[in-house]
Amino acid sequence: MRKLLLVDYENVKNFDVSKLDDSFHIIVYVGFAQRNSCPDVIRFPGWSHRIEIQRVHGLGKNALDFYIACKLGRVLETSPNTECIVLSGDSGYDPLLHHLNENGLKCKRVSSIAKVCSNKFHRNYEKHQKMSYQLVHGALLKIPKNLQPKYRRGLTNYIFNALGKKIDMSNVDKSISALIRNKIIKQDGSKISYNF
After folding, report:
1. What pTM value is reported for the model?
2. Residue range 71-81: average pLDDT?
3. Domains of the chain: residue spans and CATH
4. In degrees rounded to 5, what are phi and psi of residue 110?
């Protein structure tokens, strides 16, 4: 699977990409106020074909964030099987990443390059997602037809409470998004229907 690392250079300045594997492509977003600085990533030999420096043109509140958001939207439309990782300490990306995950793009934000490099992190993340999906799917199948929630928010809350809070609400929601992608349930606006 291709991986795309989008670096918020205004927010994270020190990172070492030398431990990333060949599946990564990197775009470093440099803010307008940083136009005279040069990210350290370009000093790694053999990486020039996999690293792009994207300079933000013009000043504006959150201008760099909008560049990254735009790129994520393009990836969703053109390469939805790409795993996107935003390297930033800015939690303002989280609602957007949540929305994109709901729409089929696999993405997350990390605040440290070490979390990207860790194979254990990737294995644990995948294992945790699979376990969450299985728990949510199992809980969904146990809901009596007459009690099946008609709205997504109600379904999320019902399953979260039915599982005795074994997994956090965001993982319940991600698993529901996966169930929608797998056509086990259908969402039309905020309404939910069931295909079983």
Report:
1. 0.62
2. 87
3. 3-117 (3.40.50.1010), 120-194 (1.10.10.10)
4. -130, 150
